[in-house]
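Per reviewer request, we include the raw input and output of the structure prediction for the construct analysed in the revised manuscript.
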Amino acid sequence: MAENIKTLHGKDTFLFVRKLKDAKTSEGKLIPFQTSLSFGPSRDSDTTQTKSGPVTTAGGIETDLSVEFINNTSAIVDALQDSLFDGDKLEFWIIYTGRKNAQGQYFSFYGRAIVSEDSNDNDADDLSTREVSFGVDGTPKRGWTTLPQSAQEAIEYVYRGLEALGDKETTGTAWKDADAGINSEE
């Protein structure tokens, strides 16, 4: 087995979306509180029997995409309903934070879709949950993307010190592995 092969974990795979019409002015946004993400490109094929043996013809790519999450009041979650009710086209990215290239970019799939179904479960003794399914246009594209700081913070908050922030993002210094054993008595 190759030394550089790593397993990927579902907890490190996230769906980001934005309205296509907002592409020039807005970043893709994380759908908050995701509990499940299903992504399944597939291709139908037909086989014709000939005197020389079977010949297979491949059809186009069809992609199943759905996300489950705890229902919340974020603007991007409202955009999902806009897509369903108004037909707003969305861009989506499936980001695998467990896989990076040498430039620090994350492996991802990019595509365009509209919401085709949005179902809610609202049990009295539990959090409200939603499952949203998408109708994906064409073939999703593979690539590498940088996560803006806001996206990294949406996935996991960053370390902050005790002081008031003012205009700064943080007043502290995040832990690094090289910090192990440091104990200055100056």
